Amino acid sequence: MNMKNGTIPTICREVVVIGGGPAGLAAAIAAREAGCGSVLLIERDRILGGILNQCIHDGFGLHTFGEALSGPEYADRYIGKFRDLQIEAMEETIVLSLSADRLIEVSTRGTFQRIEAGAVILAMGCRERTRGAISIPGSRPSGVYTAGAAQNFMNLENIMVGKKACILGSGDIGLIMARRMTLEGAKVEAVFEILPYSSGLPRNIQQCLNDYGIPLHLNTTVTGIVGAGRLEGIRVAQVGQDRAPIPETERFVPCDTLLLSVGLIPENELTREAGVEMDPVTGGAIVDDSFMTNVPGIFACGNVLHVHDLVDWVSMEAGEAGKFAACYVQNGSCALPCLIPVKPGSGVRYTLPQKVSGERDFVISLRVAAPWRDRSIVVRSGGREVARQRHMRLHPAEMIRIDLRKEAVAGCPSLEVVVE
Amino acid sequence: MALEYDIVVIGGGVVGCAVARELSRFAVKVAVLEKEMDVGLGTSCRNSGVLHAGFNYAPGSLRARLDVRGNAMMDDICRDLKVKIKRIGKLTVALDEEDETTLHRLKEQGDANGVPGLELIGKDRMQQIQPGVEGSLALYSPTSSIISPYGLTIGLAENALANGVDFHLGQQVVSITSLAGGGWVLGTKAGETFTAKVIVNASGLFSAEICRLAGISDYVIYPCRGEYYVLDKRLDGTLKALIYPAPKKNAPGLGIHLTPTVDGNILIGPSAEYLNVPEDHSCTADVMKELRREGQELLPEIRMTDYIRNFAGIRPKQTPPEVGGNKDFVIEDRKDVSGFINLLGIESPGLTCAPAIAEMVRGMVERHIPLHSDPSFNPVRPGSTFFFSELPAEERASMIADNPNYGEIICRCEKITKQEILDAINNPLGARTLVSIKYRARASMGRCQGGFCVPRITRILRDEFGWAPEDYLKRSTASPLFVGNVRPVKGGGVR
Is the ipTM beyond the 0.90 threshold? Predict the structure, then answer.
């Protein structure tokens, strides 16, 4: 790429954080606190905080602050610190491209510029899976929204999306929106979930559905969208073990709104463009125990790396990434050779980081593949047991973190994590 | 009070708009009546976006003649109207001996039709054009191209409008009465009345119905739906040319295939399924499954995450399911019903033929009304063929410096700027539905399907027009986006 050009201004920064949500904020703060003088955060929205700004319900920060904050309150704690540290932010700025040598092109009202970054921290978060992505048959009326878009309309734009809603998918945003729409006078008919278990947190099932008498139909999916103009209703059917709809169970549910809460996709277009190696299971980058990708100086954290259940873990992980990014620019590189692969084994969907050095303590984040009761998560190296964590209840909706000390993995050629 | 015109075109699809633009070269009063709130929302925007070379049609047929002519006209039209076109060529591929015989026949037929540059090519040339393509022999047609079908329709309409044609959107014709001294009175569902000396029936799926309103009961239209998948731009560049299977006898279409679009997506489709109702654009589970299967077979790199949307278009066929195949277009200046020019059964390759049909219609109109050139006619539509994001970085930088709205990205997936949204919103036709904005600015056509940009577009519309939540429409008054405010607005502002 043409690095210098007369007409395009180019600036240099030591650490550039892409995304001003919880991950980006925590990463930028940590990089500054690690002594990095020139940290720049790029945020495409008008204000910092990311999706937290539309999450006006509470429950954020229980682990970090020991209290149940709303999304904006949680964000505000970090924004306050960010401002106190006088970290530079470019709001209303979108990153158009990112190269492997960390040249970033950004666009702002009135300015197009290039930024040469010593290190880049990817913190772009995720986007919602859409109707098209899950191939729901039927017509294409108005009234079909992703749950997050509906949340944006209701909480940030004061716009009511419908009066009688159904929700497909029991992801947390769907559950939160079931309660939110009910509180604002809409009738929420039901939540339909294709899996035999909910993909949302148990506390949200209780507080958002059970408390309001909203039924959750498991093993059920939407088989058709009906309506020429506005949505008139949906066809739903139970599914068999192969998750295929059983035709004789199909029924019609009248409604004017369908919210989709059918999964989140880490937003990694820039990551791919920079040549970063990806993990097909997490949808995010492959990283080592410093959260660095295979492209030197490019780090990733938060939901762009893997979808988290709680924002507290996002902030924590991003803090680590910020610290290592600062270290990278200060010392040329602080990457240790990471030769120990960490692999998911039986019962585990993914593990992260995908490789570690064994030279420093680290945390393995993971999700299990199915719900279980009374099992252990075991970290093994060959025949040797490295760590064991007992769980009364394991659920794919919940992320599990295992702290490991470097001494525990000394001499391990590889690590495998399994459910026993 | 009736609005008086020399010529009323019924239907604002690509054919109606091409006719309107052609007639706008002359000093006559022309109106287009369109039942939807924008042009091109029917079959014209729901197809593969392919310009056909013209070898598939019997020599001497209207389709053969109009397709070759229409295809040849497109470079000038696209240049003048700022419509995206890519002359990528096509390989029609033979997989067995029967197919090879078909290709030889098509080559002869194409040569007879005057299709330029047709060649039968072997494996080596095929691989050069499209690495990895299967088959023993292919018919290469360099004039086969891809185009933005809505871009073309909108371009034709806007240029017609700029040259004096009136567009009446949301006007569905429900009555047509002939006047004793010649000419017509048309009534619409909305209660408007129009008079015309000549009617041009370009109403696509509804052309037989419009005929009946005028007392012509010769025709039946058999709607035949084609479903598509739209794939993510991740796969952009995979297809170097159009690749079609050799056509099979009596098939209602050209078979399921992969088509690159001018904007970098790939389409899988279309299927072919006859309908009992004229306008059911639903996609169906069985066909979707079949399309996924065939798409995967043709392009194994397709991943589940590459599917971003489905759509369906409907062919206005003249042949019932039991007959299959297709019939030549009906383009007639009715002798029995004077002043009624009938364009009927314009299915594929109607997009390619549209400008040539328009020339033909002009000749027919001339038999009824003298056409004198209007010296003020300007064939050029202002604007750019390219989206802002497609321009070189330096050019973008200076445009952003001049107009800050170019620096603000509203649609992140397609990198569409605020200025482009504003241009789309303030389009000359005054179409302001979400679909209208989508077809003009591409916003919401990307992988997040509007999750990011639609709230932002909503805000822009509110700022521009002071809209209340109830004012936002997806495509028509029947498809409102919202039901109201969450909480009452105090002091006349949301924020």
Answer: yes
